[in-house]
Design a protein that fits this description.
Transcription Regulator spoIIAA; STAS_dom_sf; Anti-sigma_ant; 30% strand; alpha/beta; 3 helices; anti-sigma factor antagonist activity
């Protein structure tokens, strides 16, 4: 699992959303690092954080838990989190769990 920010931390333009590109597997072995990286990104984010899922190849329940937890923390900080470009398996997973109704999706 890798996380790539669109702009270096601290240099995000306030008028543009902060975008994070995730890739690889999000599972029990990667969720702790992902959580830390996303929390760090929140502290340097604009008012909108977009999480690009286009290169995520696998996601387990722990990965979904990280996304939900980040959304809750972001709300508390006044930041909106939105997901974008999930692969078909990820879209199905979000739909089956009902998270497609609570985690906004950007087209």
């Amino acid at each position: 699992m890798t996380v790539t920010d669109i702009a270096p931390l601290g240099l995000a333009a306030p008028s543009r959303p902060t975008t994070v590109h995730l890739s690889g597997e999000i599972d029990i072995f990667t969720t702790a690092a992902l959580r830390r990286q996303l929390i760090n990104t929140l502290h340097h984010s604009t008012s909108v954080l977009i999480i690009d899922l286009s290169e995520v190849t696998f996601c387990d329940a722990g990965g979904l838990g990280v996304l939900v937890g980040i959304q809750h923390r972001a709300r508390w900080m006044g930041i909106t989190v939105a997901l974008t470009a999930p692969r078909p398996f990820m879209s199905r997973l979000l739909h089956i769990t009902g998270l497609d109704r609570s985690l906004p999706m950007m087209v």
